[in-house]
Amino acid sequence: MARRGRRHDIRSNAVETAAFRSRALIGLAAVIVALGVLAGWYFKLQVIDHDIYATRSEANRIKPRPVVPGRGLILDRKGRILAENEQAYRLDVTPEEAGDLHRLVTELSRIIALSPDDIIRFHRERRGQRSFRAVTLKLRISEDEMARFALDRWRFPGVEVVPYLNRHYPYGDLFAHVVGYVGRTDESDVERYGPTHLLYPQTGRTGLERYYDEALRGKIGYEQVETNVEGRALRRLGLQPATAGADLRLSVDADLQQAMVMAFGGLHGSAVAVDPATGNVLGMVSLPSFDPNLFVSGISHTDYRRLMDDPARPLFNRNVLGGGPPGSTIKPLVALAGVDSGLRTPASRVFSTGEFFIPGQRRGYRDAARGAGWTDLRDSIARSVNYYYYQLAYEMGIERFDEYMTRYGFGQRTGIDLLGENAGIVPSPRFKATRTREPWYAGETVIAGIGQGYWIATALQLARGTAAIANGGQLHTLHLAAERRDGFDAPWRAVPRPAPTSITDHPEHLRAVQEGMVTTIHGRGTGTRMAIGAEYRMAGKTGTAQRVSRRGSASTDPRNLPYHLRHQALFVGYAPAENPTIALAVTVEHGGYGGTTAGPIARRIFDAWLLGKMPEMDVDAVTGAPSAGAGTAPQAAPSFDAVVAGVRTAPRDASGRFPGVTP
């Protein structure tokens, strides 16, 4: 046994050598295979997948960046800028790069003033977007804030200061209801226009900014920039330029607009001035107004609450969204319908007893002029004889009455380039059937003849109808934007609009109506106070729309009523009477009588347009703002005489300007 054990313990060099060789071969083969795999992998990376990884590398190094174009300018008829762009800077945050956003906001608020509104808006907007997209934390950061941020920039990955063009309205509240304003783009805009709209920092909200938003904002361009490992731009490698927004030149005149505000002398209401020959709007005010610059970067909760709680409703555009009974201002067009329908001739006379009775009824409809005696078309317009129109509307019938008023542009939009225009209402059984099951009564036809009852007419419609009377019968589409240009060096092109329609086929009938409107002011009519000291002739019609009905036969003096129950004062007219260059509609809320309140306002507007005389108004000693544009409700019932007498023609200063007028 011991001999066999020693034989096994003897080592065989041959066997060990063979084993070593086999192991070495196996190892060598493994190394060769590994090197082959590695070489193949390198080949795949460098040759087969070269294009893929080259593209990815370029994508990491070169990034596309949107180029937002400048929003188009809005100018008045003389080229004065009503809406412009200012260079500003905003703070953008990319959530996926920024880390803990709540901590980030807390840290940023120590070097940049962030309001609660900024923080709430930021968190609301980032939740609706993908994390790799930048979200604006604050607009219009100051130079001091930018300097402090630059020192601590390394602490805030994913946070960038981005230059942009901020909208600015140099005339403040003067054109708030015409030009409108832009606001920060939000998720509702993205839903409406698509994901790429998010690249536009601001979107039109109201007025012309909203109506022409697509043309004004232009088209986004792109640039290729080389970035470092931190993603910061080093240089620009390529550029696809943006297309700038179109510029708009309006037909409105900034001086006339200012004069219209000043002519109201602090009263509330609206006015529209139109070029009778074209339908171009020369001026349009809704008072009180507001400063649209408050909305551009996001209005604060406090400011918005203040505007919403104001009982005078400064945000409400009275010309576009409002409306009410036209009162006696509708009589010239009712008279035209009477002669065009063949029920009357211009010389036909009616005897006004002071109270009109529908056959078979005991209730009478009183004439404000009481017993006016014999009256015809011209005289009935001048003296505003209700009896003439009670009887005419009754004989015409409500269906035909509706047909003529629709032809004159009522009950339909004027086509003005503003969204949300109120179409108004022409009294008719068809309209009443949508509101009640009661039948149409003859008395409702009678009062429709003097602009009462179911009537809803806007100042835009009244100005349009008056312009048609002034220009010989052509009913134009009202328009604010007269021309546009798609590029700074591009020519101005007229904004297209529909052709006008004719309101009458009988020019002699229209002349009779025009003569009646001239007699209203320069004869024995209701607007004769307007003619005192006038250097030109005017044509017009006063109106008073009641808010409180009389009881029995007793008259109601609106000056004795509480302020909020006083009648609406109206005036429509044009000047010069022989060759009109301006047609006007004025509505004064709670103004009392049209002849004593709205008429004098219209006269001041005529003077401003025809003679260059600006109405005088008080200027706030602290803010320097015109009191009429302050947007506050009267603290006490104003005296009519005080209001009328308080607005006078202002003398020019040494520089030839009017005091209180923004240059």
From TrEMBL:
Bilayer topology term: Single-pass membrane protein
Name of this chain's protein: Peptidoglycan D,D-transpeptidase MrdA
GO molecular function list: penicillin binding; peptidoglycan L,D-transpeptidase activity; serine-type D-Ala-D-Ala carboxypeptidase activity
Transmembrane segments: 20-43
Gene label: mrdA
Stretches for region Disordered: 541-560
Catalytic residues (UniProt): 328
Intracellular or extracellular location(s): Cell inner membrane; Cell membrane; Membrane
Lineage, opening ranks: Bacteria, Pseudomonadati, Pseudomonadota, Gammaproteobacteria, Lysobacterales
Similarity-based family: Belongs to the transpeptidase family. MrdA subfamily.
Domain Penicillin-binding protein transpeptidase: 269-606
